[in-house]
Amino acid sequence: MDIVLQQLVNGLTLGSVYGLIAIGYTMVYGIIGMINFAHGDVYMVSAYITAIAIALLTFFGIESFPIIIIGTLFLTVAVTGAYGWVIERVAYRPLRNSSRLSVLISAIGMSLILQNYVQLSQGANQQGVPTLLTGAIRFSVGDGFVQITYMKLLILLISLLGMGVLTYVIQKTKLGRMCRATQQDRKMASILGIDTDKVISTVFVIGAMMAALAGVLITLDYGAFDFYVGFIIGIKAFTAAVLGGIGSLPGAMLGGLILGLSEALFAGLISSDYKDVFSFSLLVLILIIRPSGLLGKPEVEKV
Amino acid sequence: MTVLMEFKEVDVHYGPIQALKKVSLTVNEGEIVTLIGANGAGKSTLLMSIFGQPRISSGEIIYRGEDISQKSAHYVASHGLAQSPEGRRIFPGMSVEENLLMGTIPIGMDHAEEDMQRMFELFPRLLERRNQRASTMSGGEQQMLAIARALMSRPKLLLLDEPSLGLAPIIVKQIFQILKDVASTGMTIFLVEQNANHALKLANRGYVMVNGEIRMTGTGEELLVNPEVREAYLGGH
Known about the structure:
The complex is a heterodimer of chains A (303) and B (237).
Chain A: H1 2-32, H2 39-59, H3 65-92, H4 100-122, E1 127-128, E2 136-141, E3 144-149, H5 150-172, H6 174-184, H7 186-191, H8 196-222, E4 224-225, H9 229-244, H10 249-269, H11 275-289
Helix pairs in contact in A: 1-5, 1-8, 1-9, 1-10, 2-3, 2-4, 2-8, 2-9, 3-8, 5-6, 5-8, 6-8, 9-10, 9-11, 10-11
Chain B: E1 3-14, E2 17-28, E3 32-37, H1 43-49, E4 58-63, E5 66-67, H2 73-77, E6 81-84, H3 96-102, H4 112-122, H5 124-128, H6 139-151, E7 157-161, H7 169-184, E8 188-193, H8 196-202, E9 205-210, E10 213-219, H9 220-225, H10 227-233
Helix pairs in contact in B: 3-6
Protein name (chain A): Branched-chain amino acid ABC transporter permease LivH
Organism (chain A): Marinomonas vulgaris
Keywords (chain A): Amino-acid transport, Cell inner membrane, Cell membrane, Membrane, Transmembrane, Transmembrane helix, Transport
């Protein structure tokens, strides 16, 4: 019983992180119909920026851990957002009117460039950040106990906050309406006076910022990272996006949570060695049974 | 009369196919001008070329003294041109209210509430459906929404592409009555239609387009009684 509860807690935090990264895949797919294969590497870059930000803040004599954490969040989200903007500008905008395949190849190229750029500039060795937040809450359950570290709590809190703010922006603000209009009918959006290139840039920046939130939180929790961490978590988040229905924002969040929870339960109850096999089997199953995902709409052209 | 928009010898090509051939026409301020022609004559191409989609291959599109033929769509839209396009192209996943708000992009939200009320007076059906998803509405309601959305930007020139397309005769009649009301406020309208009868009755002047060329021009009444026009577009009786 306590193992199940413990894995539910772990799954919830893991899932919210998947959800954050999945947002980038799903929004970009929604607006320009491409899978941004460099998105996992944007996450990886944000892990390095996290370490740099912590070093910088410490260097400037800030010793309070909460301020370092908050400062790191802001710095990393801002810098990673800039990466997102540059990536779209360099790798995707010049191909705006080309075939989907060209853009896809460009995305894979961008992914390789980011990995090699980080490997060259930061070294191939594993890097680490110090633990800034320790301690945990324990609940006894029956004979055992369930433990929630403060770090996991922070992950959950910030993820939910990030998703909440984003949902509000997309649903209620002018920027959000412009994003949705561009997603639903780009040509009409431009006729109504929307600079659709700018909106697409914004979507890339938003996606990168959400990935950066995940990057900071996971890096602070896990401590270690290398230039290759973006690959597996990127594919997991992509799975989450497909699971929820690619193109759907609530779908990405839901997909992330379901994937995180089921993966954690599988790892805790059956085998942690095969959890990745389980996740990707889930992806295959969804693609067979419900290719449009849980909340996705099948691609039907409306009249 | 001041010229608001003028096409000067405009050519448009889709690959090897020429869709518009040396098209020249003018729309003066305060006028209702219609362009009639059969399906595939190039009418929608002409309207969309104002927004650079597609770009014209030669000629000029002068709007208030400036050649806008090479400008971006959002530049054109933010200078007082609004279009209710072919096929209506409302945003299916948005509510009626959100669709109307999309029309305010060029001018900002300052007059949004007031203008929305005006639209609800003009199109009472939209008020009933205010919070409904636009995709669930009937064709006629969607057409009204597309026109209202265009009006929300307080345009200097309203471009309408076949507002009667696929609608029941009674709805078409309603829509043309509303267009008459809009025109009576002094709005300049450029109307593209296959429904020559309604369009020519509403318009001050008209152009007839055949295979990408302007074949005839005259006042609405002149064209209505013109034997060629009657033969080709009004059922020949």
